[in-house]
């Protein structure tokens, strides 16, 4: 397949410059000829090299990618856009993801044996390593094993997350494996291939963990743990060989990092991390402890999302009219439980009042007075909560549409969890109209806890009626 | 347009109706029947009435070994299968018997699909396509019949399987996950064993069939729960060997 000239049109796509001319395929930047169809992100087109001289293997691998990429979703893969008919006009259009590959990163960060870089290097390895592991975990959860992870196929995004590229040797648990016929012949890249792949076992997610281990080893030491074997026999060494411990190359590496890397590189898959999420967790936990033990403060956190989850803003919607003491009590219990298991959480107590309630002429119903009255009620409600380890704030919102006001407040303040009454007295109506709890549960950007009125009040009522009859 | 492929119904009315209903609900507008309509089960007559109705509406249908045996059962039964053929024969009316004996061994569906109960390699010898080599022989025979054939759909073996032709002309076996549409692009050759509608034997009592979508080039293997206890009760009530009823209750 010769190079396409910019401006060529293929199936409604205009071809721009060639960004990669590999042994298997050419990759071009492309756009829709009809700009209105543009999906809002840049596009790349992959066209397999399939002239008479090319082997059958690369068309099969193109077919594999064509089959698997459209099944994958999430932040860790390029979005699939379109594909051409394999027999007539083979091409694959996907999202062009901005970033640089780990291969580039390795070239820009040559390992040196000076100890000064140890902290920064360890931080980089922990950060990129967990991002790679989380990306692998995301595709594993979708029943796909990549099986060709290597620095050229790992793309580092600006924000720190990883996108995995090239699914040409991948295996989908629910699809026939078109590469399975290569049984007893290794399918993969010799430097990163796992021992079980060398003997033709495909579809074990721990093969990807092995490949990540090889990359971590290179990031840490600048060396390849098994070299780059050129022969089948050379690759078979992997079935039994344990690589030199990374600290032999780089004595200043922390021991825990060496352990993490060697565990990824266990010849027997069962001895490795059982899932990529475990690897990510292992890297993050060890790294945090290490930083703490060394008395160093490292910013930013390697897993900000998880930290955010641990210290959410908990919002409680406290109603002010048509509300029983039992409901207020139950809301307070729910708030206490939610705060109790999250030591760093922050409490926001919110009540929504109608704009028509205030009056400009009647001073007792002036806006300030109303706000003051409701703030006092909120504080009184919260007085029963132990807030010694939490910060709390009180907010009176004025809005005609209660549900919308609550949802907007949650959005605007990045609320992690909202607690409100389930309004069970309106249950019969909920089938016909959207009540406030239903709308909030549907539209809120966060977890919503709907609290039902609990004992003891209901119980008291029952015993009272029982006694009366 | 989706086509529901059903095989080895084995006179199991409950399973047949559950599969037909499931297939229609999942978009099937056409059906194909891959043989062994009768044998083992208690309702050969009602099953054949449904089948003859479908065939009158244009559904292709091929003959299975049990269909042949029900038409001409041996005088002395040497195994349970022959025993059930002896039981079945007198319970069919002349029209139903004529229908069974008129069934072809193979049928074409569209330009590129072949229907055969067992193997295209000598369909009347009822070879079991239970591994890659047997699948290869069936596929090769189909290709000799017509090189345009890309899909061979069969039953006879009661477990669902999909065989696919690799570039080195080997057939690989794949065990499909029920409910997942598997891409079967026509530039390769595919041989699908759709499994048994009325006589599952893999320890799962649910009925089997497959949905083929020629436009999307996918095949979805399905498992359908049905009232297998009622089917087993009918077998016992009909005076058939109790083993057939146990089998339906256990899916073995």
TrEMBL record, chain B:
GO terms for cellular component: cytoplasm. CDD domains: MPP_superfamily. It comes from the Bacteria. Residues 1-214 form the Calcineurin-like phosphoesterase domain. One of its GO terms (molecular function) is phosphatase activity. Pfam families: Metallophos_2. PANTHER family: BLL5683 PROTEIN, METALLOPHOSPHOESTERASE. Belongs to the metallophosphoesterase superfamily. YfcE family. This is Metallophosphoesterase. It comes from Alicycliphilus denitrificans. The lineage of its organism: Bacteria, Pseudomonadati, Pseudomonadota, Betaproteobacteria, Burkholderiales.
């Amino acid at each position: 397949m010769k190079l396409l000239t910019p401006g060529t049109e293929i199936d409604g796509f205009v071809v721009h410059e060639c960004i990669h001319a590999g042994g298997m395929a050419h990759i071009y930047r492309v756009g829709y000829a009809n700009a209105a169809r543009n999906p809002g992100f840049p596009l790349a087109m992959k066209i397999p090299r399939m002239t008479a001289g090319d082997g059958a293997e690369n068309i099969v691998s193109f077919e594999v990618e064509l089959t698997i990429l459209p099944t994958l979703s999430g932040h860790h893969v390029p979005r699939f856009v379109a594909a051409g008919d394999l027999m007539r006009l083979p091409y694959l259009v996907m999202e062009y993801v901005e970033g640089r590959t780990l291969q580039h990163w390795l070239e820009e960060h040559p390992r040196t044996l000076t100890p000064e870089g140890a902290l920064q290097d360890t931080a980089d390895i922990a950060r990129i390593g967990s991002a790679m592991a989380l990306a692998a975990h995301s595709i594993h959860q979708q029943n796909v094993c990549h099986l060709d992870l290597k620095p050229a196929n790992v793309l580092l995004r600006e924000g720190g997350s990883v996108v995995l590229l090239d699914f040409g040797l991948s295996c989908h648990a629910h699809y026939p494996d078109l590469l399975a016929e290569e049984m007893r012949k290794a399918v993969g890249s010799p430097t990163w291939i796992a021992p079980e792949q060398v003997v033709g076992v495909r579809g074990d997610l721990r093969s990807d963990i092995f490949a990540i281990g090889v990359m971590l080893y290179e990031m840490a030491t600048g060396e390849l743990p098994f070299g780059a074997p050129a022969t089948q026999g050379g690759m078979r060494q992997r079935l039994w060989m344990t690589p030199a411990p990374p600290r032999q190359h780089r004595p200043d590496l922390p021991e825990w990092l060496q352990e993490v890397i060697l565990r990824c590189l266990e010849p027997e898959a069962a001895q490795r991390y059982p899932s990529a999420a475990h690897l990510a967790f292992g890297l993050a936990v060890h790294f945090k402890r290490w930083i703490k033990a060394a008395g160093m403060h490292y910013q930013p956190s390697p897993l900000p999302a998880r930290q955010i989850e641990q210290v959410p803003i908990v919002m409680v919607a406290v109603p002010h009219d048509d509300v029983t003491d039992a409901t207020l009590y139950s809301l307070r219990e729910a708030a206490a439980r939610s705060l109790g298991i999250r030591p760093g959480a922050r409490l926001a107590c919110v009540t929504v009042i109608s704009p028509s309630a205030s009056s400009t002429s009647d001073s007792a119903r002036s806006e300030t007075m109303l706000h003051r009255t409701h703030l006092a009620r909120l504080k009184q409600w919260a007085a029963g909560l132990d807030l010694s380890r939490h910060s709390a704030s009180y907010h009176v919102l004025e809005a005609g549409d209660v549900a919308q006001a609550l949802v907007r407040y949650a959005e605007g303040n990045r609320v992690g969890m909202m607690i409100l009454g389930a309004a069970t007295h309106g249950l019969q109506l909920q089938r016909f109209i959207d009540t406030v709890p239903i709308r909030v549960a549907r539209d809120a950007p966060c977890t919503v806890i709907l609290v039902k009125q609990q004992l003891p009040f209901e119980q008291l009522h029952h015993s009272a009626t029982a006694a009366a009859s | 347009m989706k086509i529901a492929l059903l095989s080895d119904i084995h006179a199991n009315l409950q399973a047949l109706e559950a599969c037909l209903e499931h297939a229609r609900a999942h978009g099937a507008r056409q059906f194909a029947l891959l043989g062994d309509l009768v044998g083992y089960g208690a309702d050969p007559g009602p099953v054949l009435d449904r089948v003859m109705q479908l065939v009158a509406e244009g559904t292709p249908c091929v003959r299975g070994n049990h269909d042949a045996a029900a038409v001409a059962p041996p005088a002395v039964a040497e195994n349970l299968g022959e025993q059930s053929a002896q039981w079945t024969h007198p319970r069919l009316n002349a029209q139903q018997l004529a229908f069974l004996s008129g069934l072809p061994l193979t049928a074409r569906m569209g330009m590129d699909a072949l229907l055969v109960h067992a193997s295209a390699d000598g369909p009347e010898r009822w070879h079991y396509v239970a591994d890659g080599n047997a699948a290869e022989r069936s596929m090769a025979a189909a290709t000799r019949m017509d090189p345009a054939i890309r899909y061979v759909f069969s039953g006879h073996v009661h477990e669902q399987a999909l065989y696919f032709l690799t570039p080195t002309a080997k057939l690989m076996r794949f065990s499909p996950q029920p409910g997942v549409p598997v891409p079967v692009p026509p530039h390769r050759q595919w041989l699908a064993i759709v499994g048994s509608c009325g006589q599952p034997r893999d320890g799962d009592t649910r009925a089997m069939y497959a949905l083929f979508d020629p436009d999307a080039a996918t095949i979805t293997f399905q498992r359908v729960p049905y009232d297998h206890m009622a089917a087993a009760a009918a077998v016992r009530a009909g005076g058939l060997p109790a083993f057939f009823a146990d089998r339906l209750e256990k899916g073995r």
